[in-house]
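Entry type: protein chain
Record version: 2
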Amino acid sequence: MGGPEIERLIELLARLPGLGPRSARRAALHLMKRREALLEPLADAMTTAARAIQVCSVCGNLDSRDPCGLCADGKRDASVVCVVEDVADLWAIERSGAFRGRYHVLGGVLSALDGTGPDDLRIASLVARVRGPGDAPGEVREVVIATNATVEGQTTAHYIADRLAGTGVAITRLAHGVPVGGELDYLDDGTLSAALRARRAV
């Protein structure tokens, strides 16, 4: 096949989510066939990103500045903080355009199976952020817990709610249930149960 450089490229591409060895080989071939139009600009962009991108010290988002653009945006509502598992979830909520508050990225979820405990996540910094400096109340008035509807996500949400109990901050959770445009016949039992529990007046 190719030389060690090509093998290394394929090996690294195969580590990306959604790419197995076969897909990685196809991607590598495509990049090499379009070296000037694709491979070289991609390599430059990746080098630049590796040097410039950093983790926001306030919320945990990825940006080329610290604090990130979302934390530095004075037009966003600093009294509402949305807690997400990772940056991909933050980006998904931002794409919706439905949230104008601030964020807090945990960096994962509690998982006994994976050996992930509270100290491995950014929970202590969330609590400190909510409590505010010293004895003065913080500016946060509501924490929206937006962890995934998995066992680990639910466990993490309950743990965070317990840690924030007594702070006087409203703790809310994303609603779970029937998706927009969804048909009941195609939904799983868990989704239907969650939708029934979260029913509201019309």
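Comment: The chain has a mean pLDDT of 92.
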